[in-house]
Design brief:
single chain; alpha/beta; Aconitase, domain 4; four-stranded parallel sheet; 8 helices; about 30% helix
Amino acid sequence: MEKFTTLNSIAVPLDRANVDTDAIIPKQFLKSIKRSGFGPNLFDEWRYLDHGEIGMDNSKRPLNPDFILNNSKYTGAQILLARENFGCGSSREHAPWALEDYGFKVIIAPSFADIFYNNCFKNGILPIVLSNDIMDDLFAYVGEIVIDLETQSVTTTSNTYSFEVDGERKRRLADGLDDITLTLKYEGDIRHFEIEYFKQYPWL
């Protein structure tokens, strides 16, 4: 997982509330348990005009010209703006996998579904909660946004907004630690415990 410090990017304004995980990555793409390869099918049913299935050549599929992600001016954007209750629905971790694989590193919304919110941190995505009034300002804003994890700030050319983040989650993002890499930091201690444990209980 990459370390997160600061990010300068334009934002994709997905002006929809209650975006569920099936909209983020539809169920037919959940057959794979690899973390990569889901980006081309992010928001698949909104992004394309045909029905998507796993293994299709997405470069040959007809794009929906009215969907915001297909607007060329947002190419390369790493920030996603959304409305209330983003990530609701099922608990599939494939949803943040798809967002991260597409290139999003920050999602800003007034509220998130709890499981999705937690899964974002586990996959290197920073979910930021800001009020509806601030979100209205950001949706109306045109230009780069600066996200600073250390100062916990979102900055435009005219305003700076503060956000809250749990201290331990902040540390993990800053150090690029997911659950696996964090566990591996204690690999020596774990091995020592196992050796001593089986000496004490050799019949196990």
